């Protein structure tokens, strides 16, 4: 595949960075830190919920991101600008095995068992990615996962996370709303004003952080107590564990949800990258043509996590939202973010300092970022000209939205349907189930086409 040429000399007004653009070193580090700040709350929260070590999870998310970016550049000549963090989709399945209390490290022989399932999840993603890569790429995936499925799944993810954002904001509404407001103002009114226009989330976070100090919400004692250097407790998977197949069955099946999620993220980011390239008079990247390779990279990321004790993950919608808001799609900036994440795992005081960011500040940012994830799903449906007057498309989108959003918010993420109870004793995971139902409906409509008269009537 032909490599995208490097950027020409940039005009005085900085519009943004495309995937292969490399910002100057200081800007590179600042943009990388902004990515880390964006992924940090969700990545750490997943680790705390499922009983994984936070240092290991942060480190391996950085390693997975760097490996994926380097491989994408080597294989395609382009960076696929995505950050790989811990996925909420796996929480229910993993928690069944770890039985973890919040913030308590599971340890023992349980984590090596769970790691077997995470490695298997990566293998599923790699195999699906290879099938897509050699079975027609975009044409094949559009039949299996048309825009109405991927766009609706993306919308569900953003909207379903809305309660989590509001729950974080509820710890102190004044700080959360202040952070939200200033972040939105920075993202709107600094646009096109040089480098500051690329870091509105960081500026908003810093503003909210300083504001929260007036309410006594920042506690620096953990920074003083933390070790300067720490070695995270990496562990290896135990493939000989007697419950290994149970872990594979419980965890690997969740790839059914993360595959359309990852595909939706790539479609979204590809759409916005090409819009920016067009605005800048540059060559388009056509990232949506790299769906198969993207899933292979997703799988490699999960296998890396599984082999060393990181949480199962996916590319992050939060960081996609950040890139859309800031117009910074630089692959090198994401490489810097991966390096900083690795440092967070090994430098105790650095990690502790980031952890002093109040929950309310994260909540204010999350309201904006999670909302943008949902709106990107809507943008994908609009950009792909999905006909929502067609009852087939309408049915697919409707089922995904109601099952995914209602199940996640109303039933705590798991639907109380007595199916596959051995694999999902807490109920079917809502968002994966919504994605599967949408895929099945789409396949039914393809297997049994509408008669010509009905087709004309629906149009």
Describe the structure.
The protein has helices spanning 25-50, 54-76, 91-98, 110-134, 138-144, 147-160, 162-169, 173-189, 200-213, 221-225, 244-251, 255-280, 291-308, 317-326, 331-346, 348-354, 359-383, 391-410, 430-447, 452-458, and strands spanning 84-86, 313-315, 414-415, 428-429. It is mostly helical and 459 residues long. It has one domain (25-374). The strands form 2 sheets. Strands 1-2 form a two-stranded antiparallel sheet. Helix 4 (110-134) runs antiparallel to helix 13 (291-308), helix 6 (147-160) packs across helix 12 and helix 7 packs antiparallel against helix 17.
Mean pLDDT: 82
Number of strands: 4
Helix/sheet category: mainly alpha
Uncertain runs: 8-12
Q: Largest sheet at a glance?
A: 2 strands, antiparallel
Number of distinct helices: 20
- Rg (CA only): 21 Å
- What best-fitting shape do the alpha-carbon axes yield? globular
Portion in strands: under 5%
Query: Can you write the helix and strand succession as a string?
Result: HHEHHHHHHHHHHHEHHHHHEEHH
Strand adjacency order, main sheet:
1-2
Give the N-to-C terminal Cα separation: 38 Å
Give the count of structural domains: 1
Portion of residues in helices? 55-70%
């Amino acid at each position: 595949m032909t490599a995208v040429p490097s950027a020409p000399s940039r005009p005085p007004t900085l519009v943004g960075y495309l995937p292969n653009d490399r910002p100057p070193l200081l800007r590179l580090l600042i943009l990388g830190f902004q990515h880390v700040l964006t992924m940090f709350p969700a990545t750490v929260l997943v680790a705390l919920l499922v009983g994984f070590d936070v240092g290991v999870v942060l480190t391996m998310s950085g390693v997975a991101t760097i490996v994926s970016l380097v491989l994408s550049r080597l294989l395609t000549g382009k960076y696929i600008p995505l950050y790989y963090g811990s996925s909420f989709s796996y929480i229910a399945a993993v928690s069944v095995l770890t039985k973890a209390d919040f913030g308590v490290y599971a340890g023992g022989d349980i984590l090596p068992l769970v790691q077997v399932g995470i490695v298997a999840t990566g293998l599923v993603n790699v195999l699906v990615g290879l099938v897509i890569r050699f079975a027609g790429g975009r044409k094949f995936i559009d039949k299996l996962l048309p825009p109405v499925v991927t766009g609706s799944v993306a919308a569900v993810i953003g909207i379903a996370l809305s309660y989590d954002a509001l729950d974080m904001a509820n710890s102190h509404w004044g700080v959360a709303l202040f952070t939200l407001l200033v972040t939105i103002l920075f993202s709107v009114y600094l646009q096109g004003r040089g480098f500051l226009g690329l870091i509105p989330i960081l500026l908003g976070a810093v503003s909210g952080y300083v504001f929260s100090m007036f309410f006594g919400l920042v506690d620096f004692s953990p920074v003083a107590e933390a070790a300067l250097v720490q070695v995270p407790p990496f562990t290896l998977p135990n493939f000989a564990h007697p419950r290994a197949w149970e872990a594979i069955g419980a965890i690997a099946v969740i790839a059914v949800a993360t595959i359309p999620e990852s595909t939706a993220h790539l479609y979204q980011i590809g759409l916005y990258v090409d819009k920016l390239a067009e605005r800048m008079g540059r060559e388009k990247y056509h990232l949506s043509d790299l769906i198969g390779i993207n899933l292979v990279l997703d799988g490699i990321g999960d296998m890396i996590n599984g082999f060393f004790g990181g949480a199962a993950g996916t590319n992050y919608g939060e960081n996609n939202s950040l890139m859309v808001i800031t117009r910074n799609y630089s692959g090198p900036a994401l490489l810097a973010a991966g390096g900083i994440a690795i440092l967070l795992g090994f430098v105790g005081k650095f990690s502790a300092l980031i952890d002093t960011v109040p929950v309310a500040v994260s909540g204010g940012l999350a309201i904006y970022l999670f909302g943008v994830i949902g709106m990107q799903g809507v943008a994908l449906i609009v950009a792909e000209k999905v006909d929502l007057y067609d009852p087939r498309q309408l049915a697919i989108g409707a089922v995904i939205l109601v099952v995914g959003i209602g199940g996640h918010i109303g039933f705590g993420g798991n639907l109380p349907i007595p199916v596959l109870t051995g694999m999902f004793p807490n109920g079917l995971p809502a968002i994966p189930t919504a994605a599967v139902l949408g895929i099945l409906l789409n396949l039914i409509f393809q297997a049994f086409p509408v008669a010509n008269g009905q087709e004309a009537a629906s149009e």
